[in-house]
Design a protein that fits this description.
This protein is mainly α. It contains 11 helices and 4 strands. Helix content is 33%, strand content 7%. Helix 6 packs across helix 8.
Amino acid sequence: MDTQNTSARLHAQSRNDGENHPSRRTRAHTRSGGVIHDNARHTARFTVIGNHLAQHAELSLLAIGLAVHIQSLPGGALVDIRTLAGRFPEGKTRIAAALRELEAHGYLRRTCERTSSGRVVTRTVSCNQPGRTGAPDEPRPEPRRPARREGEPPRRALPAVPQPAYPAPDLLRAAIEVLVGLRRADPRILLSATEVEHLAPGVAAWLERDLSPSAVHHALTTDLPTEPLRRPAALLAHRLAAQLPPVPPFRAPAAPPPVRHPLQNCDLCDRAFRAADPGRCRGCLTEPPGVHPSG
């Protein structure tokens, strides 16, 4: 995923030879006001980043920075949207859009997989050289999306979707099942794993508003356009946001019904009274000892 050097011997820091050395600044640099590099050689804790990423002509600055951060992490580190949003101030929506940019350009590959226990997890592969194949630790080297042709406009990010108040795993799992089942109602709604991951929180926000999965399915598949759906995921994202039902009104829990104890016979007066256990009735309990209430 990245090239890190954590075991190299420490040497005295030295400046790079050549044009970037501060002692060889040219007059052209000074006159133009351009950047002057004051570089020091890294000997530990560094990551090699290609200029194809650092100077990418189509990626946003957020996507480039996010790719650099992900490539610097050790294998197994969490890079899901929630973890990254907790680490950086940009928020879930912008981070999700940046991840989709990296995926569209081959720097990320994400797939939704179901474990043996039935849990749906997202598997993320970070590529420091898009298009590279044959890596032993990357069993699926082909990008899930085809590379964009030269001159083709960049893929537009999907609209933002509502977020659930409590994104419980069971709720998100039910949301994914709703999205995967949409193509059974309309074959045109064929979603990629990345699109399902983006839309699942929006469906979860509907489900936590007391809507059944079948009701959400009906809302997303009713009155679809008759012409071919060029971006079905964008249409679903728009519906999830524009038609989000209101939060149901708060209903106080109903008071439990009063406990109705069985009839018991008083041990002293033999009168019937209701109690959980046999014993004396209320009248006999209030009488002084030795005094019979009927006598």
